[in-house]
Fold this protein.
Amino acid sequence: MAIPHAKPAETIDVSPLGAELKNARTTTLVKTDSLEVIRLVLPAGKDIKPHEVPGEVTVQCLEGKVTFRAGEVDCELTAGKLIYLAGSDAHSLRAVEDSSLLITILLQHKSS
């Protein structure tokens, strides 16, 4: 069964989840050939190991607090903070508090 994603011009609620954050799961909100938008839900203490994606990425903290590492630089993301990464930049994160993040990825495609 296909996972439903938002259709063009459909509104998506990305408000903080508040009390529902404890029971929420990571969800892909939009997925096209060139764009992916994800609400990433991380419980306190959860690590995302170092990785990279080929396209440019933004990560916006919707609620909670995470330590975000890009290369050798650590920064703290809290509600309302956003970070941008160029394609293929290695990064990792650790949730300091229960958190949700809005991830936007510009997907790269091999030319024919």
Remarks:
- The beta strands are 27-31, 35-42, 47-51, 57-63, 65-70, 73-78, 82-85, 91-95, 99-106.
- The CA atoms of residues 52 and 90 lie 5 Å apart.
